[in-house]
């Protein structure tokens, strides 16, 4: 292990939620990197556990353990620009706001480096921030592959740091519309339920008392005979947060293949969840920015077929 190309050191503490996990799973989740990359960092000697270098990826971590991860400069990965349809609703020299279509993965992962939002951005936009490395240029926050709607992209590192800070401080408003199963009885409410990686399926998340704080506000827009159109606002940004919290309420998002009903009424390609409104302060001008997008046609088609309660 060399030191001349190492740039970032991350200090992690194992909490109760992660106690008992494999080291590669813990590093992957805490640093939001792929499990294969976490395994390579460990096997290459870039991870210390309680100040001792550990190269065994399957080593079990315990609550209170301290891990130190040294992230070397990433080797250049050629992410090709692809002419993928992209709805850019706003753009200036600092940022762009994208209305992402359903079915488009945000960034490359798992060794697959094509047909993502990043590939499309590289084709459409000249400059993108580099803070997140070669495979996530410009990506400040994400939407799930089958979630549509608005997201902001940074075009330089100054904007990236500022926008990330706004999200962390809960100054960036992100409002979603979703059609959920069943009739939601209360007009509005707050779901304050911690979320952690599912113990039965590592690809999924679940409400877990030992998880990380997750807060979602909701408000009923329209009640139909067997469904409800609901507005959700994120106060935290956990993976799959709205989908997990909706299921916790007993009203999973229609079309959700992971958390929804196994038998669906509509023939959909994914969940009816749309990032409809995003608000933030412009990193440079300090102007209040607000964008609102139309629900996709397939979403509107389902709504038009429903009977009001």
Strand count = 15
What is the total number of structural domains?
3
- What is the fourth-level CATH superfamily of the largest domain? Pseudouridine synthase
Q: Uncertain runs with pLDDT below 50, 5 residues or more? A: 1-6
CATH topology of the largest domain: Pseudouridine synthase
Oligomer: single chain
* Beta-strand percent range: 25-35%
Largest sheet: 9 strands, mixed
Structural class determined from secondary elements: alpha+beta
Give the N-to-C terminal Cα separation.
65 Å
Query: What is the alpha-carbon Rg in Å?
Result: 20 Å
Treating each run of at least 4 consecutive H or I residues as one helix, how many helices?
A: 6
The H-and-E topology, N to C, reads as EHHEEEEEHEHEEEEEEHEEH
What is the helix content? 10-25%
The CATH architecture assignment of the largest domain turns out to be: 2-Layer Sandwich
How would the global form be characterised?
Answer: globular
Report the average pLDDT across residues: 90
Protein described:
This protein has 309 residues and is α+β, with helices and mostly antiparallel strands. The protein is 17% helix and 29% strand. The chain starts with 5 loop residues before the first strand and ends in a 5-residue tail after the last helix.
Kindly list the characteristics that best describe this protein.
309 residues; alpha+beta; Structural Genomics Hypothetical 15.5 Kd Protein In mrcA-pckA Intergenic Region, Chain A; Pseudouridine synthase; 3 domains; nine-stranded mixed β-sheet; four-stranded antiparallel β-sheet; 6 helices; 15 strands; globular
């Amino acid at each position: 292990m060399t030191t001349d190309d190492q740039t970032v050191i991350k200090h992690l503490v194992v909490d109760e939620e992660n106690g008992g996990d494999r080291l590669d799973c813990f590093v992957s989740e805490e640093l939001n990197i792929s499990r294969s990359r976490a395994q390579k960092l460990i096997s290459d000697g870039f991870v210390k556990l309680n100040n001792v270098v550990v190269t065994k990826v399957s080593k079990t971590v315990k609550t209170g353990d301290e891990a130190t991860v040294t992230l070397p400069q990433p080797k250049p990965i050629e992410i090709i620009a692809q002419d993928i349809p992209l709805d850019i609703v706003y753009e200036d020299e600092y940022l762009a706001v994208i209305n992402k279509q359903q079915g488009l993965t945000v960034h490359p992962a798992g060794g697959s480096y094509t047909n993502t939002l990043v590939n499309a951005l590289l084709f459409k936009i000249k400059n993108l921030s580099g803070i997140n490395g070669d495979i996530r240029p410009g990506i400040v926050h994400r939407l799930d592959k089958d979630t549509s709607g608005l997201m902001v992209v940074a075009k330089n590192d100054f904007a990236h740091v500022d926008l990330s800070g706004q999200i962390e401080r809960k100054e960036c408003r992100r409002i979603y519309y979703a059609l959920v199963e069943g009739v939601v009885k209360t007009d509005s409410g707050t779901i304050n339920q911690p979320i952690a990686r599912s113990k039965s399926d590592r690809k999924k998340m679940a409400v877990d008392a030992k998880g990380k704080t997750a807060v979602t506000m909701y408000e009923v827009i329209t009640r139909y005979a067997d469904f409800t159109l609901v507005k959700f606002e994120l106060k935290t940004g956990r993976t799959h947060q709205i989908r997990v919290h909706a299921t916790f309420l007993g009203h999973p998002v229609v079309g959700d293949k992971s958390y929804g009903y196994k038998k669906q009424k509509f023939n959909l390609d994914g969940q009816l969840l749309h990032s409809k409104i995003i608000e933030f302060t412009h990193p440079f001008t300090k102007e209040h920015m607000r964008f609102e997008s139309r629900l996709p046609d397939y979403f509107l088609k389902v709504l038009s077929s429903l009977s009001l309660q």
